[in-house]
Specification:
With about 220 residues, the protein is mostly beta strands. Helices cover about 15% and strands about 45% of the residues. The protein has two domains: about 100 residues, Elongation Factor Tu (Ef-tu), domain 3, CATH 2.40.30; about 70 residues, RNA polymerase II/Efflux pump adaptor protein, barrel-sandwich hybrid domain (OB fold (Dihydrolipoamide Acetyltransferase, E2P), Beta Barrel), CATH 2.40.50. It is elongated and about 105 Å long. The chain starts with a helix and ends in an 8-residue tail after the last strand.
């Protein structure tokens, strides 16, 4: 057996070992975790509304600001039979400003929303997992959640709280299967410890469910 033939055998053996190793690793990943990029942050949204027709004269908060229940979040000028009144608007809950739908100078009608607050203790993750993987998912399993912003990527921890009982076609615009049909997916609710971090409903998340308790989520 010449040296060239031996070299071919050695290279071929190494390639085969690498392929088998990769296949084994992928199989291990498949039985120890379930990943999905189809997940979003959800939270309890509380609107702050004008109680009567009024004009916004002060709106000191910005998106992402934290407020305490009872804290002043706006000043409105309204006309009454007694004349012009400046009415302070107070935060109904302690939370984070999730959106602002009014600006200084705007005239609001009674019941119109000027901003929304999100309860920082109410965040959860709404994920969509393919029905073929759902039999492996159980309530109580640990979950790693990664959320990226423009400046950083944060990792949070949670657990599976609820698994949908009926399949649904989620994220239809990006999940088209063979033959043009949409794969069926199941909604999964995941509790989230946000650790006081200012999250916002609608933020996209990466989710990894740990199927095997001894497996690393990293």
């Amino acid at each position: 057996m010449d040296k060239r033939f031996r070299a071919i055998i050695v290279v071929g053996t190494l390639v085969l070992v690498a392929i088998l190793g990769l296949a084994g690793y992928l199989a291990w990943l498949n039985i120890t975790r379930v990943d999905t990029l189809k997940a979003t942050v959800e939270g309890k949204i509380v609107p702050v509304r004008a109680q009567a027709s009024a004009r916004v004269v002060a709106l000191p908060l910005e998106l992402g600001d934290a407020v305490m229940a009872g804290e002043e979040v706006a000043l409105l000028k309204t006309q009454t039979a007694q004349g012009t009144l400046i009415v302070p608007i107070l935060a109904p809950i302690s939370g984070i400003v999730a959106s602002e739908t009014a600006a200084i100078g705007d005239t609001l009608s009674a019941g119109q929303t000027m901003l929304t607050l999100v309860d920082p203790d109410s965040f959860w993750i709404s994920a969509s997992i393919h029905q073929n993987r759902i039999p492996q998912v159980r309530v109580g399993q640990q979950v790693r959640v990664r959320i990226s912003t423009r400046t950083k990527r944060r990792t949070f921890w949670g657990q599976v709280e609820q698994i949908g009982s009926a399949t649904q076609s989620a994220f239809a615009s990006t999940a088209v299967g063979a033959g043009g049909s949409l794969p069926s997916e199941v909604p999964v609710i995941i509790s989230l410890d946000a650790e006081g971090y200012p999250l916002f409903p609608g933020m996209r998340a990466e989710v990894r469910v740990r199927l095997e308790p001894r497996a690393s989520l990293w």
